[in-house]
Amino acid sequence: xxxxxxxxxxxxxxxxxxxxxxxxxxxxxxxxxxxxxxxxxxxxxxxxxxxxxxxxxxxxxxxxxxxxxxxxxxxxxxxxxxxxxxxxxxxxxxxxxxxxxxxxxxxxxxxxxxxxxxxxxxxxxxxxxxxxxxxxxxxxxxxxxxxxxxxxxxxxxxxxxxxxxxxxxxxxxxxxxxxxxxxxxxxxxxxxxxxxxxxxxxxxxxxxxxxxxxxxxxxxxxxxxxxxxxxxxxxxxxxxxxxxxxxxxxxxxxxxxxxxxxxxxxxxxxxxxxxxxxxxxxxxxxxxxxxxxxxxxxxxxxxxxxxxxxxxxxxxxxxxxxxxxxxxxxxxxxxxxxxxxxxxxxxxxxxxxxxxxxxxxxxxxxxxxxxxxxxxxxxxxxxxxxxxxxxxxxxxxxxxxxxxxxxxxxxxxxxxxxxxxxxxxxxxxxxxxxxxxxxxxxxxxxxxxxxxxxxxxxxxxxxxxxxxxxxxxxxxxxxxxxxxxxxxxxxxxxxxxxxxxxxxxxxxxxxxxxxxxxxxxxxxxxxxxxxxxxxxxxxxxxxxxxxxxxxxxxxxxxxxxxxxxxxxxxxxxxxxxxxxxxxxxxxx
Length: 588
Hints:
There is one protein chain. By secondary structure, this protein is an alpha+beta fold. It is built from ten helices and 25 strands. The protein folds into two domains: 11-347, Transferase(Phosphotransferase), domain 1, CATH 1.10.510.10; 349-588, Sandwich (Immunoglobulin-like), CATH 2.60.40.1930. The strands form eight sheets. It has a six-stranded antiparallel sheet, with helices on one face. Helix 3 (111-129) packs antiparallel against helix 5 (191-207), helix 3 (111-129) packs antiparallel against helix 8 (256-263) and helix 5 packs antiparallel against helix 7 (236-245).
């Protein structure tokens, strides 16, 4: 923590700024006070980041994710400004050192303390996973040792930086030494990847050393995939549990409940003498408003560490403290104040308990079901009449986000990219020819349709343009208007500058995809039928930091081979839409 600078604003939104907590990959983190006197941690996005529409879209989607997560192990979202610069998020402020800072300053934790911390963090991850969210960047820097227990912070908002022009050569998802082999090798990011990171984090706590050594990120990642974790000097039983967590095969790692069982804790973590020593004088709220005792030459450096760190620095920072003897008996941990900003998370890509029904190509009535809100892509090109300026910059700001639009009647002319979509179609999940991982949110019993290769309708793998037809049966009892939009999602997040997946970091697509202009199937002019061609009738629009809307056309499917997802949305407003069907198609 440090004092505000002359260049810092006095207020962000309704929050009064008190101090600097640190800097992250996407921006500056401040300590603030709400009008009612509540302390909050505020992250303000860097000005240069706001110039990248795809980064802003990810930031908004992640804000929606953290808004949905309510856990005792995360800092809740208090407020946010996502419509115009400056873009910021405010969360609960958690006083206490990060695990990284504590170990760096006072040495490795005893085995008993590590086991209690192990169990507490496993319980915290289980709580987060219950919301369908995976952390994806668990590491000592992202664990705050709070007075009520550990808090998980930074759910990957800085991941957006790695997918903009700021990406550096050799960058990899997550942090070297804490990123699971399947993420590094195949881009898989299931909950088991968090188990790997948990084991590596506890290894650091137990040894005071980087779990896979230091050096260039590529070398550290290589050791994480092919080498052995550093557990020299760790009590054998604890070392065995850590090793089980970091095995190469994700399916062989223990479940979080099993980790908790094997830790066999017999007392609360907050009653652990070492943990209590760390948090006893952790910069409580009473010290902060006037800042006389928390800002000064004797204050340790801020505990906040960016999620994305330039090559060559991440591993080195994690390894600080090698050879340091523990000083718990001498330590009175005063003034260690680390600010935590819980940001959006990367969503679990599958939920075995919520498998969708038929994932076919819209043959026959569409099934019913329910899931969490999808979304996150963007406004689109046109419907049957063709694209509406796809790919051309537009100087006009976006239409009202309250549900209006320029379409006929109450049908908006687009949908905003404000939501996170967990819907993913895979051609291999169902022996019957593919399936979606989640069911639809609403019933669509009167809709029928098809998705075929435009040139070869019988093709099992698509190679060119795609024909999509949606029809509302004439005897449908649905009330007018009945507006729909279709979203077509590539397998990976797309760099709109190149129209291809990001070169260094391939991440699963969490948006609504390139979408079509909403069409009212109850309008007599449509006859209850819409026929679309991808990519011709599809686009996504993003608003830059000057409020200028830029439209990006749908990319050729050959640019991103793999399983593409097709979503049909029931549209009630610009920001109000929900899935009524999910299907997809494979691309060679």
